[in-house]
């Protein structure tokens, strides 16, 4: 259950009690023989209306609220200046209040919209030489998506203190993880359970704090779009293994880390002349070649290694070639030609 509901229920109870109390203390306010019933209904309706507004504003951040308030004040100021300019002084008194109402509503709406679309740098144009900055050092927020939680390498990096900060896991990511864990497919179900195991491991790690974030964006269709939106609002660093999500985040100026890219960068580089122990697992594309793989998945082509398929041999690196899929290594078995 949403942790806000107990507070909402308490607030609704207080509104109902207040409505009943007012009907008893000031019965003239409700001139009816069943004034107490009407008082209870009015209190319930008032509390329910505020709770409904609260539910509709779910996901509306404090930054958005402050920006909206500033825009409304600025728009109202402009509307007051227009109204005080004497532009409508000759208008009929019966219609002037309509003109004033439309002026204040119109400029107030425009001010709120412009403030919501602006960033903090735009306010420096309105208030010169002023920069809005937090007084304390901001937290390093680490926003995790579903793929990086299931992967589990983030937990190892945190335990090794390569990554430090406050870990945020959105509730909509937990929901997606639960759907994967409840899948009828055995592989997906295992991945979902592994994700929950990794979260439990992170929560029990004393080196870092993990928080579940309740923000949601109902207008956004997919989890990826919600993650980018949340990372933008919180100025958080997004961690993922999803190539497409990383690209979309980069286009929207979101600080994003793709652990797969880091893994490729951290692979040990093989130098020509270096010896490696490798198992030849299958035949190569060209005649006489054998194929083996390094522990990190790098493919090694061994010249004249076909006769050693299924064996672990000591091979010497001849050259390396950078391809779109990674590094391709060519090697040969020393002394093989001489023995033939």
Top keywords for this entry?
single chain, 340 residues, alpha/beta, Rossmann fold, OB fold (Dihydrolipoamide Acetyltransferase, E2P), 3 domains, five-stranded mixed beta barrel, 13 helices
Could you provide a short overview of the structure?
This protein is an alpha/beta fold and 340 residues long. The protein has helices at residues 5-25, 35-56, 62-84, 93-117, 123-126, 146-151, 153-159, 171-181, 186-203, 223-234, 243-251, 259-265, 336-339; strands spanning 141-144, 166-170, 209-213, 237-240, 256-258, 275-283, 290-293, 299-303, 312-323, 326-332.
Description:
By secondary structure, this protein is α/β, with parallel strands linked by helices. It folds into 3 domains: 122 residues, no CATH class; 125 residues, 5'-nuclease (Rossmann fold), CATH 3.40.50.1010; 65 residues, OB fold (Dihydrolipoamide Acetyltransferase, E2P) (Beta Barrel). It contains 13 helices and 10 strands. Strand 4, helix 11 and strand 5 form a beta-alpha-beta unit. About 4% of the residues have low confidence.
CATH C-level category of the largest domain? Alpha Beta
> Which structural category fits the helices and strands?
alpha/beta
Total number of beta strands: 10
Shape: elongated
Main sheet: strand order: 3-2-1-4-5
Number of helices: 13
Order of helical and strand elements: HHHHHEHHEHHEHEHEHEEEEEH
* Total number of domains: 3
Main β-sheet description: 5 strands, parallel
CATH architecture of the largest domain: 3-Layer(aba) Sandwich
Poorly predicted tracts of residues: 124-138
Which fold does the CATH topology of the largest domain refer to? Answer: Rossmann fold
What proportion of the residues is helical, as a percent range? 40-55%
The residue-averaged pLDDT reads 80
How would you describe the oligomerization state of the chains in this entry? single chain
Radius of gyration: 32 Å
């Amino acid at each position: 259950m949403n942790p806000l509901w107990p507070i909402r229920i308490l607030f609704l109870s207080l509104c109902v009690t207040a409505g009943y109390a007012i009907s008893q203390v000031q019965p003239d306010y409700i001139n009816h023989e069943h004034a107490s019933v009407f008082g209870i209904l009015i209190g319930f309706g008032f509390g329910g209306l505020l709770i409904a507004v609260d539910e509709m504003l779910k996901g509306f951040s404090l930054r958005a609220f402050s920006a909206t308030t500033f825009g409304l004040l600025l728009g109202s100021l402009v509307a007051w200046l227009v109204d005080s300019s004497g532009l409508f002084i000759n208008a009929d008194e019966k219609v002037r209040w309509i003109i004033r109402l439309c002026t204040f509503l119109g400029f107030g709406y425009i001010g709120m919209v412009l403030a919501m679309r602006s960033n903090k740098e735009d306010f420096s144009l309105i208030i010169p030489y002023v920069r809005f900055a937090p007084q304390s050092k901001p937290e390093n927020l680490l926003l995790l998506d579903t793929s990086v939680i299931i992967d589990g390498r983030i937990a190892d990096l945190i335990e090794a203190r390569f990554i430090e900060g406050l870990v945020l896991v959105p509730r909509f990511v937990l929901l997606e993880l639960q759907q994967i864990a409840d899948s009828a497919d055995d592989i997906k179900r295992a991945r979902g359970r592994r994700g929950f195991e990794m979260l439990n491991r992170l929560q029990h790690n004393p080196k870092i704090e993990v928080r579940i974030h309740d923000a949601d964006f109902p207008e956004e269709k997919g989890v990826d779009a919600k993650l980018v939106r949340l990372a933008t609002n919180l100025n958080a660093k997004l961690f993922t293994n999803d190539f497409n999500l990383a690209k979309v985040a980069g286009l929207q100026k979101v600080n994003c880390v793709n652990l797969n890219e880091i893994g490729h960068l951290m692979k040990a580089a093989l130098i020509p002349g270096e010896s490696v122990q490798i198992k030849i697992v299958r035949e190569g594309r060209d005649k006489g070649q054998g194929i083996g793989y390094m522990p990190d998945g790098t493919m090694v082509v061994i010249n004249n290694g076909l006769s050693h398929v299924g064996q672990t041999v000591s091979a010497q690196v001849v050259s390396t070639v950078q391809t779109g899929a990674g590094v391709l290594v060519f090697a040969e078995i020393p002394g093989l030609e001489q023995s033939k």
